[in-house]
Amino acid sequence: MPAVALTRIDHVGVAVHNLDEAVERYRTTFGLIVVAIETNADQGVREAMLQIDASDAEAGPHSYVQLLEPLGPDTPVGKYLARRGEGVHHIGYAVPDVATAMRGLVAQGLRVLDERPRHGSLGASIAFVHPKDLNGVLTELVQAASG
Ligand code: V0V
Ligand code: CO
Fold first, then answer.
1. What span, in angstroms and rounded, lies between the C-alpha atoms of 80 and 48?
2. What is the pTM for the complete model shown?
3. CATH number belonging to domain 8-143
């Protein structure tokens, strides 16, 4: 039995300087559906979720590209852009239950950055794992909203 069972890739988070320009580029290039643009002050971002599997819009669960623009320089994405420039910021994996997954990772000695689940895009519950504990990849656990 693994410590945590991931079920799929929910989203890939991309740090961008200009959200509106990036949304247009990804939308027109790949035909993605922009399902939400939200400001998450807690996470210091304005972000867009672009649904990848556009041919079957009603069926779920879906995978997304999440485009992330920082609300300021002293935010996770703002610091990332200053240090590395635009690029892949994190990967969000779906889990059935984020609190259970967090406990499983803590029991393995990984640094879960959130003490309790936080509010994520599209009503999800999320938690982040330190990139240094997963080979340099900032990793997000995503429990999709039910219903
Ligand atoms: C920083 N580092 C990263 C990284 N950010 N490595 C890989 N991927 C990233 N995204 C590395 C950085 O290069 C340094 O390594 C080291 O970590 C410390 O960097 P720092 O700039 O001093 O950053 P810290 O320590 O202040 O913060 C880094 C962490 C922070 C990961 C702890 O960004 C954080 O708490 N992130 C979780 C929240 C978040 O990212 N929210 C935005 C997405 P070297 O150079 O020393 O080796 S919100 C979202 O996804 C939502 C709402 C959603 O999906 O619904
Ligand atoms: Co995310």
1. 18
2. 0.96
3. 3.10.180.10
